[in-house]
Amino acid sequence: MKFQVLSSELLSHLTSISRVLNSKNAIPILDNFLFNIETDKLVITASDGDTTMVTSVALQSVEGTGALVVSPKNLLEPLKEMPQQEISVEVDEENLEIFVTYESGKFNFIAGDAKDYPVQKPLNSDAQTFTLPAQTLLAGIQNTFFATADDDLRPVMNGIFFDIREDQLIFVASDSKKLVRLINKAVKPGFTANFILPKKPANILKNVIAKDAADATVTFDSKSARITVGDYSVSCRLIDGRFPRYESVIPKNNVNKVTIERQTLINVLRRVAVFANAATNQVKFDLTNDLITVSAQDIDFSVSATERVSCSYSGVAMAIGFRASFLVEILNTITSAEVEIQLSDHARAALIVPIDNNEEEDLLMLIMPMMLTDF
Question: Most buried in the list 74, 91, 99, 302, measured by CB within 10 Å?
C-alpha cells in the first residue's frame, strides 16, 4: 500500500482527532489511530471506548487499500515539526512497516494489526435524526459548556442537555451554582426528545467546528449519539439519567433590573475581587438608584476594596453577594455590549441576559447569590 498526502492536511486532522485519545486506556490498542486507506481518501479513527471520532483526508494518489493501527508518537510528533509539503507513505503489508518519505528525509516505524481494533457499534434502528446549522450547534456548546459540573454523585449534571422540541432546540447546562439556557427558535426538529451530551465530546466538537462549516447532523438513540460536521464525525455514549427540571429554578417576576455595560463590569469585578476572601471569592453589590457599589474584603488579611460603577437601575435598594469568578465567567461568555441583571430579592437567583439578544435566540444565564459574610 502506498499513498501521497499533504503534510499540513494530515497534521490538521490528526491533531483534531488526537483529542479523543486518553493517556491511559483499559484497551492498549486504543492508544493508537486506526487508518483505513481507501481508493481516494484516508479514514482516521480515534477512540477511548466511550467517545469515537472519525475523519477523512483526501489523498493525492493511492496504490492499494487496507487498514492498520498507527502510534500518534511515531507520526503526529514528526509532522508537527515539518514544513508543509507532500509526503509519501508506503506500507510493507508483510510486516506492517511504514516508510514516510518527505523532501529532505525519511523515517520508518512498525504499525499494528487493525483486526484487533474494536468495532464501533451502530445506533439502534429507532434512532432519531435532525439537522441544524453548524454555527448554531457551536453557539449552543460555547454558551453552555462552562456551566457544566464535575459531580460524581450527580453525573447528569456533567454534560449539556439537549431539550428537543418540535419547533425549537434548547441547550441547558448547570452545576447548581449557575445555569445557562439557550433557546434556538430557528431549528425545528419536528419531534420531541432529549439527551445529555457528555463534556468530552462537547469539547471536541467545540474545537473542530470550523467557522465556514455548513450543517451538522445529529443522530441519537437512548444510549448513544453521533454528530457529523464537515469531515468529522463524533460518536459517544450518552449520560444516563434524567436532567433536572431546569425551568422550575428560573425565578419569575424579577422586577428589579440593572442595565450595565458588560466589559466595564468585568473590569470592576477583576479589580475588586483581588481583595476578596480566597475561599469564598465573594463580592457584594450595593444597588441604589443608577449606581452599583461593588466591594470585597478579607478580614483575615485586613484588605478590602470598593468601587462604584454607573448603571441604569430604578428598583429597590438592595445588597446581594456573588462569587466573582462565576459572574466573570458568565459575563465573558455573553457577547452583547450591555447586559441586564434581573433580580427579585437578595436571596433568590439573579438572571443575566444580553441586551442584544438575537431574534432567533433567547439566551439566559442564572447565578445563585451568596449569603453575605464579613460585611
Answer: 91
| Ranges assigned E (strand) in 48-177 | 51-58, 61-63, 66-70, 86-92, 97-102, 105-110, 112-113, 128-133, 159-164, 169-174
DSSP 8-state class, residue 274: G
Long-range (24+ apart) CB contacts under 8 A made by 224-232 are 224/121, 224/123, 225/195, 225/197, 225/201, 226/123, 227/137, 227/201, 229/134, 229/137, 229/205, 230/134, 231/13, 231/55, 231/56, 231/57, 232/16, 232/17, 232/53, 232/54, 232/55, 232/208
Please state, in angstroms and as integers, the Cα–Cα distance from residue 126 to each residue in 20, 123, 131, 162, 166, following that order. Answer: 27, 8, 17, 18, 18
- Global pTM reads 0.93
Q: How far apart are the first and last CA of the chain?
A: 73
How far apart, in whole angstroms, are the C-alpha atoms of residue 156 and residue 140?
A: 18
The one-letter amino acid code at 140 reads G
pLDDT tens for each residue of 23-57: 888 899 999 999 999 999 999 999 999 999 999 99
Provide the phi-psi class of 77: left if phi over 0, else alpha when psi is between -120 and 50, else beta: alpha
In 3D space, the residue among 83, 110, 184 whose CA is nearest the CA of residue 140 turns out to be 184
* Among the listed residues 322, 311, 373, the one whose alpha carbon sits nearest the alpha carbon of residue 346: 322
